[in-house]
Please model this.
Amino acid sequence: MELYELGLKEAADQIKAGKITSVELTKSYLDRIASRNEEMKAYITVCADKALEMAAESDKRVKNGNPRLIEGVPVAIKDLFCTKGVQTTAGSHMLEGFVPPYESTVTENLWNAGAVMLGKTNMDEFAMGSSNETSYFGDVKNPWDKTRTPGGSSGGSATAVADYLCAAATGSDTGGSIRQPAAFTGLVGIKPTYGRCSRFGMVAFASSLDQAGPMARSVEDAALMLRCMAGYDEKDSTSADRPLNDYDEHLAELDVKSLKIGLPEEYFIEGLDPVIKAEIDKALENFKQGGAEIKTVSLPHTKYAVPAYYIIAPAEAASNLSRYDGMRYGLRVEGSNLNDTYCKTRSAGFGEEVKRRIMVGNYTLSSGYYDAYYTKAQKVRALIAEDFNKVFEEVDVIITPTTPTVAFELGGKITDPIAMYLNDVFTTPASLAGLPGISVPVGTVKDGESELPVGMQILAKPFALQTAMQVAYAHEQMTDFKMRSAE
Amino acid sequence: MSIDIQTVNKLANLSKLEFDDTGKEEVRQKLNKIVEFISQLQEVDTENIEPMASTVHATSTREREDKVTEENHRDEFMANAPQTEMGFFVVPRVVE
Model:
C-alpha cells in the first residue's frame, strides 16, 4: 500500500504513533500530484515548499510529544478559502494573482489542528457551476472516467480526494457544491448546518447559503475533518454559537432499530435515473433489515427549490460581486473613464456563467421585478423550510438520491444553463432551509463503458448533523460499495 | 414576459458589464430561458407567508464592545492593488 492511499484518520494515527513521518507522507502526495495534476487539473496552485515546511514542523511536534488532532496530514483547500501568502483565485481570472493578506477561519482551524496544506483546488468560477467547467483554470477530470465531470463547484477538491492527491479536502456548498461532486466521485461530502463553519475569509457567492464542509474517502475521515474546520467564530455574525461535537468519536452510537427514515415522494420522480433509484433501494433495504422504520413523507414544494434558488443565489451574487471593480485588488483593465474601467475590468475578469448570474440577479432585484421574483422566492423558501420542519416531527433523517444522474460527460450540459441547474434538484431544498446534509456513496452503475458511483443524501434537522453522520456510518458498514483504488 | 435588447442594455449597465452584439443576443436568449424557468414560482400560493431572508437560528444579534481589534495592515492590503501612490488606491480621473 502506498502512503497516499491512507485516509485522514489512519494517517494521523500512524504519524502520531511514529510509524511514518509527515514529511514522508507529504512527499508521497507531492510526487503523485507532480505526475497526475497536469492531466487531472485538480489543483490550481500546489504549494510544495510550504507543505514540506509545515510537515517538518509537524514532525517536530510529534517528536516533542505534543501532536494535535490531525498532525501532519496533508489536505487540499478549495481555492475560495483565503490563505495568507498563497494565491486565492475562486477559479476566476478576476482574482488571478490575488494573494490574501489574511487567513480564513476554516483554514486557520485546520492548521491549528495540525493539517499540512498541499495546495488550492480547482472550482467553478466563484462556485457558480455544477461541472467545474466554468473555471478559468481548465476542466477537472473525474478519476472514474476522465471524459466526465467530477461535478461542481468543488470539483477540484472531489478529484483531489478521489484520485488520492490528498487525504481529505475542504469544499463549499451553496446549492449542492459539496454533495453533488462527492456523489459523482464516490466520496463522502458533508454540508453542515448553515452557521456551523465560519464564512470569514471565504470568497462570497450567496451569503445566506454558503457553507463550508469536508470531502473525504470515508465517513469517519469526513467527520474528523469537519471537527477540525468548524466552530464558533466571532468574525462571522452568522456563525453558530453552539458547542462543537467530536463527531468522529460518536459514529457507532446509532441504534438502527429506533431509527425513523423519511423518504420524500417528490424526490423519486420522473427524471431520476432508475439505476440510481435501484442503488438507493439496496441501501434502504439494509436499514430495513437492521430494524429501521422507513416511511414515505411529502415535501410538496420540492420542485420549486431550483427556481427559488436561481433567484436568491444570483441576487446575492450580483450584490457580492459588485466589489470587483478593479481598484483595490484583482484584475484591472483601463478604460477611458471610471465607468468604462469598471465595465472593461468586469467584462474581461468574469466568465460567461458569472456574467449571466450577475445579470439575472440585477434583473430580479430591479424595481418593478423585486416583489415578483426576489420577495416571491424568499416566500417560497419559507414554505420549503416549513415542509422540512413538518416532516422532521415524524422522522429522524430524510434519505434521497444526491443527484438525478451519475457523472455526465464534460461538455454535455455547459451550453444549456437550465439543464445544468436541474442537476441541483435534490440538493437545493436543504440549502434553502439551511439544513445539514451528507452525500455517501451507495454503489456503482455501468454507464456505457464506465463504472460510475452513485450518491445517497442524508438530511437532518438543524444542528443534528451527528445523527446524519451516524446514519452514514451505519450505511458504510452495511454497503458493498468499494472506493476505486489508485492507478 | 420576454427580455428585449433594451432590457439587456439596462441590466448590463447596472451590472457594469459590456457585450458585443453577438454576445448581447446570446445573453438575451439565455436570460429569457432563465426568466421563464424562474417564473414557475408565480404558481405557488404564498398568501400570508413571511419572506425568509436567512436561516440563521440565533434569537438575537450579537453585539461586541466597540474597540479596535486589528492593527494597521495598510501596506499588506495595498499590495494587491493594481495601482497605488503614496499609500492610496489610484482610480481613473473622475472630475474633469
Remarks:
- The helical segments of chain B are 5-15, 21-38, 74-78.
- Residues 5-43 of chain B form a domain with the Histone, subunit A fold (CATH 1.10.20).
- Chain B touches chain A through 52 residues (CB under 8 Å).
